[in-house]
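User: Batch of two.

Assistant: Item 1 of 2:
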Amino acid sequence: MTLWAFLGLESACANADAVDNPEKNVPKAVLGGTLGVAVIYIVSTNMIFGIVPANELVNSNAPFGLAFASMFNGVAGKI
């Protein structure tokens, strides 16, 4: 996970020369993207905790699939 985060950060900074006012805009974009991803991760994790019982979640190696299977009668969980 850290590798993908680093690659995304490196990619954002590599294109700084194509951005207007990069000293101001690149840090804002990196911080905004990081905060946005953190919010999505926290919200989706809390939603899974609300949908799937804890005893099933502990034994699952695919919690998102388990949540979709719980919501859509198993059809979406197999996809």
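Item 2 of 2:
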Amino acid sequence: MQFRFDGFFGFPGGIVDPGESPEEALNRELSEELGLSSLVEFSKDDRVMVHYNKYKLLLLHFFLKEVSFDDFREIELRSMCAPEYGNEVLGTVRVPLYTMTDGYSSDKSSEER
């Protein structure tokens, strides 16, 4: 996730420009916000959900891509050199997707603490 200029956490993305597909817009935004011009490309096959926000009149497209740990680290490194770093994006954040049994670590040695 990103730490955004407005103080909120959010996903990379933005508005689809005229003549762009949602996938083209996402790839452009990922290049601008995370510097991912050649490392990761999204296609229609990566779209997992579309949500209509009736209050803001927005159609939100959500995509999912599995990457290796090495690519994940490269994404974090590239984000600091992206064109929008320091303006629109103030950093990336690793959000835990699961909870450890002890709330701290997944290795056996943590059980001895």
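The beta strands are 2-4, 9-10, 47-53, 58-63, 89-92.
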